[in-house]
Design brief:
single chain; 253 residues; alpha/beta; 2 domains; nine-stranded mixed sheet
Length: 253
């Protein structure tokens, strides 16, 4: 018995869900899908693959994932996004873990991020460690709307890979960028953060220089430039939207 549960959150992931679940079933013996009322065939395909589907209106990245944990049969849980897969080295690494005696409560893996079918090795996209295998009795997801992660300081990094098919087009990237920047601004506002009129520009500029120059994004050619511009735009918008939220709050007083 594998004694690992799988966890995936979905919304209209018809094109990805079967490959994702097939990948996870290599090391998991049960999988929970928390779906935000998909309008395509995601739910039907997930159930056909043998997953338990929980329907839940989207609560944000962290809370949405946490909803699924009580439904996972085992204390060790592997969490993937629908556009992610286990690489062969990750399957082997997980099978070699002694879950009964490990001193760790979570494990991190390297992530190979693909854009338009091409593995991006620079611009901060590799090795891109992500914490995805954890003991649910000892830790949980950070309760934030965007880019949540397992809250744990007691973890190990393994030299194994998740394969991540990020975006099929620049249009898709920019659409998600807009949503992510809004959620990030809301998180900052909720925690009482403020920004000066210069914050959007300086954060955007710093982000571009960091990823294009110091993270060698220029080595990825046009894709690298696109990624770095997207990152800097997201940073700019996050703080611009934060300022907008404060302005709206003042007007309502």
């Amino acid at each position: 018995m594998k004694k690992i549960s799988g966890l995936v959150i979905t919304y209209n992931e018809e094109k990805n869900i079967e490959a994702c679940l097939a990948s996870m079933f290599q090391v998991c013996d049960d999988i929970v899908v928390v779906d935000s009322y998909s309008e395509d065939g995601t739910i039907e395909l997930a159930e056909k693959m043998g997953a338990l589907v929980i329907r839940q209106a989207f609560l944000g990245d962290g809370p949405q994932r946490s909803i699924g944990l009580p439904h996972c049969k085992h204390k060790w849980v592997l969490n993937l996004d629908a556009d992610e897969r286990l690489d062969k080295d990750m399957v082997n690494a997980i099978r070699q873990i002694d879950f009964e005696n490990t001193p760790y409560e979570a494990f991190e893996f390297k992530r190979k991020n693909f854009l338009n079918g091409r593995w991006i090795r620079y611009a901060g996209w590799y090795p891109d460690y992500v914490r995805r295998l954890f003991d649910k009795t000892k830790t949980d997801f950070k309760p934030v709307k965007v880019h949540s992660k397992i809250e744990s300081e007691n973890y190990d990094r393994l030299d194994a890979h998740i394969v991540h098919y990020t975006y099929d087009s620049i249009e898709e990237m920019m659409s998600k960028l807009n949503s992510y920047s809004s959620w990030s601004a809301q998180e900052l506002y909720k925690h009482g953060k403020s920004a000066s009129p210069f914050s959007p520009f300086f954060h955007g500029l710093f982000s571009f220089v960091k990823f294009y120059v110091f993270k060698l994004g220029f080595l990825e050619g046009l894709d690298g430039m696109t990624i770095c511009i997207a990152k800097s735009t997201a940073s700019y918008l996050k703080y611009a939207k934060l300022i907008e939220l404060h302005r709206k709050a003042i007007k309502t007083k």
